Amino acid sequence: MRPHSEFFQSQWLPWLASDLGGMRPDVLVRTLSLDSDSGACSLIVRYPPGYCCVAHTLDVDEEFFVLSGALRIGEQEYAAHTYAHLPRLYPRAAISSGAGADVLTFFSAAPRRADATSAAFDPARLVLHLDTRAMSAHIGPRKHMASEGFNHSGTVHKLLFDDPLTKDKTWIAGLPPYWSCDTVERHPVCEEEFAIEGDIHMPNGVMHAGGYFWRPENVLHGPFGTVGGTIHLCRGKGGLYSTQFSPSERPFRWDPAYEPILPPDYQAYVPRDSR
């Protein structure tokens, strides 16, 4: 399982050398969270300028969103704000990056090479390429969220992946400037978010671009709001995602003090002036 981490700025974490299970030598990673049992992990992977590695096939799912720069897998170019879900056993051509890239990356288990005799990948779980900026957005209540009592005004939702096998979901959520709510909520599955742009004011602090949290199932959270608007990449892990809303017993507050919930090894990365 992964410990509750809510929240920290990924910019505080060190870059560490990695080869991602021997598949991609000479990359750097920031580890956002790690499942100590399965090896499933959420990372920011930095591919240096001029990067290239040989074709390979992984025995795990790989999901990614390009934060900056550009990545190429064979003939497919992934520019900033593009997304893909490459299922277990999907064969990858050579991976390269001319100018370098920082890529938000999720592996369903510890990265490892697939056995040459393995079966074919499941095409129903493949999302080869999405330009999230060009996608049309759903505005207002979302199908996977109960809407009663929630301020959906101006909220934006772009569904990126709906896993037919696990029922897990990945989506982009956007909130408009000066938006806030007075409700709290909980989900029956784990919720993971990475802030792509903007700010979000939560009871335990203000998360900015680069902020990250992993929240276990059924943890009550909220209320929250944003001054300048915000865009987050969100994942529901552990089955069908749903939301239960209820009125908050405490009013929403702008600019709350930073009081994170972090495992000890991540507490050490919090700058003194943020505590």
Annotation keywords:
1 helix, 2 domains, seven-stranded antiparallel beta sheet, Jelly Rolls, eight-stranded antiparallel beta sheet, mainly beta, 275 residues, 25 strands, 1% helix
Report a brief summary of the structure.
The chain contains one helix and 25 strands. With 275 residues, the protein is mainly β.
Your description of this structure?
The chain is an all-beta fold and 275 residues long. The chain has two domains: 119 residues, Sandwich (Jelly Rolls); 137 residues, Jelly Rolls (Sandwich), CATH 2.60.120.10. The protein has one helix and 25 strands. The strands form six sheets. Strands 1, 15, 16, 17, 20, 21, 22 and 24 form an eight-stranded antiparallel sheet that branches. Strand 8 and strand 9 form a beta hairpin. The longest helix has 4 residues.
What number of structural domains do the residues give?
2
Overall pLDDT confidence: 93
Q: What percent of the residues sit in helical stretches (DSSP H or I)?
A: under 10%
Shape: globular
CATH architecture of the largest domain: Sandwich
Percent of sequence in beta strands:
35-45%
CATH topology of the largest domain: Jelly Rolls
Enumerate the spans where pLDDT stays under 50 for 5 or more consecutive residues: none
Order of helices and strands: EEEEEEEEEEEEEEEEEEEEEEEEEH
Number of helices: 1
The biggest beta sheet is recorded as: 8 strands, antiparallel
CATH C-level class of the largest domain is: Mainly Beta
CATH homologous superfamily classification of the largest domain: Jelly Rolls
Radius of gyration: 19 Å
Which structural class best describes the helix and strand composition?
mainly beta
